[in-house]
């Protein structure tokens, strides 16, 4: 029983990290129909910047703030200079964002060096505690809490707030929203920046979780995020959460019981979903 609970917590923590990265993709693709393969570059810049500030100031909070800020800034640059000229053309979006992903990856090596960097959790999140015979690792519980908080806040904003109404209306008919005097380009830019900020937040949280960061991990995790978005349903926020948890749990249990399949289980899940439900587990109406 203790082993089962430990694997579940590990899977949930991994799933929440993937969700934070995939949530940004869900916002960007689901609300703007933009295929952003540079998302992993925003993830890794958040990781490196957040870790650098964390190590320089010994403040994990400042590290998280710095990661989100660099994500917002890079999101602004990406949307204005890279994405805006290719709105509506998915093939061009794939090519240009893949190229920009490689640029961001190489710039990481210029700014921070090509070597891997070790990362340690802050003192208040280090270690574990016991509940009966179950060992609970503090940082994993922290990640789960952050993921739930982000999901709740984002869902409330999208469904209950005026900006959420504008965004959803802009997705349905951006010309009509523009005719009402609302700058839909500005709204979409803010959505893109928010998605980039979530990617950067995932980066700093994953850096501490894994204990090591390297420039190439951005591309690896962007592929994983796209798998989650496909499984959950393109554009579905709850679908991304469910799919991320499903992928996290599958990885945790496979890594323990069948290590040889731990890397292939994500592709296997996506293949099964695409065969029996091509639109994803949570289809977005319209």
From TrEMBL:
Q: Which UniProt keywords apply?
A: Amino-acid transport, Cell membrane, Membrane, Transmembrane, Transmembrane helix, Transport
Family as reported in the entry's similarity comment: Belongs to the binding-protein-dependent transport system permease family. LivHM subfamily.
Protein name (record): Branched-chain amino acid ABC transporter permease
Q: Which domain of life is it from?
A: Bacteria
Q: Which InterPro entries match?
A: ABC_transp_permease, BCAA_transport_permease
A Pfam family annotated for this chain is BPD_transp_2
Record bears the keyword Iron-sulfur = no
Q: How does it sit in the membrane?
A: Multi-pass membrane protein
Which locations, inside or outside the cell, does it occupy?
Cell membrane
Residue stretches spanning the membrane:
6-27, 34-54, 60-82, 94-112, 139-158, 186-209, 221-249, 256-276
Major place of localization? Answer: membrane
């Amino acid at each position: 029983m203790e082993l089962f609970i430990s694997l579940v917590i590990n899977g949930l923590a991994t799933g929440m990290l993937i969700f934070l990265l995939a949530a940004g993709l869900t916002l960007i693709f689901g609300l703007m129909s933009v295929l952003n393969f540079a998302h992993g570059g925003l993830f890794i810049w958040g990781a490196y910047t957040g870790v650098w500030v964390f190590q320089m100031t010994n403040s994990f909070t400042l590290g998280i703030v710095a990661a989100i800020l660099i994500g917002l800034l890079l999101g602004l640059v990406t949307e204005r200079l890279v994405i805006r000229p290719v709105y509506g053309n998915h093939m061009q979006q794939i090519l240009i964002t893949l190229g920009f992903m490689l640029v961001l990856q190489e710039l990481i090596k210029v700014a921070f060096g090509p070597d891997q960097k070790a990362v340690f959790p802050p003192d208040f999140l280090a270690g574990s505690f016991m509940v009966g015979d179950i060992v609970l690792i503090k940082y994993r519980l922290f990640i789960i809490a952050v993921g739930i908080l982000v999901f709740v806040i984002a869902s409330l904003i999208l469904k209950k707030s005026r900006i959420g109404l504008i965004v959803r209306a802009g997705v349905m008919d951006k010309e009509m929203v523009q005719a009402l005097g609302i700058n839909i380009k500005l709204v979409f830019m803010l959505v893109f920046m928010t998605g980039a900020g979530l990617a950067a937040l995932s980066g700093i949280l994953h850096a501490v979780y894994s204990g090591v960061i390297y420039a190439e991990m951005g591309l690896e995790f962007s592929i994983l995020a796209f798998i989650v978005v496909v499984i959950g349903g393109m554009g579905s926020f709850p679908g991304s959460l469910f799919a991320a948890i499903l992928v996290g749990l599958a990885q945790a249990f496979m890594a323990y019981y069948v290590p040889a399949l731990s890397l292939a289980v994500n592709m296997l899940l996506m293949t099964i979903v695409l065969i029996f439900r091509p639109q994803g587990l949570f289809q977005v109406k319209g």
